[in-house]
Structure formats: C-alpha cells, structure tokens
User: What shape does this take?
Amino acid sequence: MISSQRDFAVLGGSFDPVHQGHISIAETISESLGARVCLVPVGVPAHKSSLVASPKQRLRMLELAIRNHPGLVVDDLELVRDSISYTFETMRILREKLGESENLYFILGMDAYLDLPTWHEWQNLLSLTHIVVCHRVSAKAFPPELRVFEANHRVRTIDELKAASRGFVYYVENPAVEISSSEVRARLRRGDAMTGLINPEVARFISEQNLYRSTGDEGIPQ
Assistant: This one.
C-alpha cells in the first residue's frame, strides 16, 4: 500500500525495451515502501557501450508501460544530459529537488548491486539516498568491500529504513518476472509470443517502430 507520497524511489536502467520484470520490481517497491517509484532511462551509459532504441523511443515505451500504474512515474533527466549518466550525479540532482528531509531510495537488482564497487562515487551514494536491493540468488561473487559497506549500513526492517532520509542498505524480496531486456530483444527478433513479458501497448509501439527486428539489434545484455 502507498501510505505516503513523501517517499520517492528511483529505478534506473536502459529499458531497451522496458518489460514486465521492470514494472514488477517498481510495483513491489512502491507497495512495500509506500513510495512513488520513478523510472529513469539512462542517457549515455557509463558501463554499457550501445543501445538499440533511441532515447525518445525508450522514453515513450516507459510512458506506455506505466499507464494504469498510479504509483509509477517517468523522468527524462538523464536523457537531456550530454554527459555520462553517473548514478551519483542523478541522485544528487534528485536530492536537491526533493530537499534534505524527504526519504529517497535508489533501487538495484542483485547483480547490479554486486557490481556497485565499480561505480563512480559508489561509497558516497548513501550521503544522498538509501539503497534498496531486490534480493535474489546471483552467480556473482560478493565483493569484500561491499560486505564491509553492508556491515556498516544495512538495516533489516522498514521502520529502521524510514527513520532517516538516506544512509541505509535494505533488501526487498523480489518476485519479479525472470526476464532480461536482451532476452526480450531475442524473442522479438524470432517473432516469439510476448504474452506476459511486455505491455501490449509497448509491443504495439515496438511493431510500429520496427524495433528489434534485425540481427544487428542485439544491443547489450541488461
């Protein structure tokens, strides 16, 4: 349930294309934390080399995907920047917009969380936001520096998390659809049925735009 409109959570990603796994994660966070969830498509990726859909197309797919999801919004703040989309800079901008007292959460999947020590200014993220991890089993090793980070900052209950506007790591169990954008692109390229994997309006838009049809549309794993 969304008990407060003060709390604000951010789910970033390439969204190339957005799929039901993304929406499931966003809805889970919205309901469990009582927060608006803002989906922020990446502009110039720091860790990924190329994208298939244009910024305008990815933004439109997100707008279509969140229809009938009142707890979700979309922001193009990374798309309008010319510089690399560092999460630290995005969260700094959002913190300035929200003010110092508002609860702010940054959502990460488990694999991305395990890569966190490779990110720009990663150890300073908690000066701006909480980190909410969608927990699931991962094949990746747990970095030692992340274990230390967690030992200093992880909390176990929502009450502990909401006691401050930033500064904690919190795990949420993730019942999301186990599908990636790269798998969705491969299925679209083969002409497979997409029922339950992407929003029907998004699927219609992809067809109209002739996206993900050629063998050059593999893009990047995400």
Q: What stands out?
A: The helical segments are 20-33, 55-65, 87-98, 110-114, 144-153, 158-161, 181-190, 200-209. The radius of gyration is 17 Å.
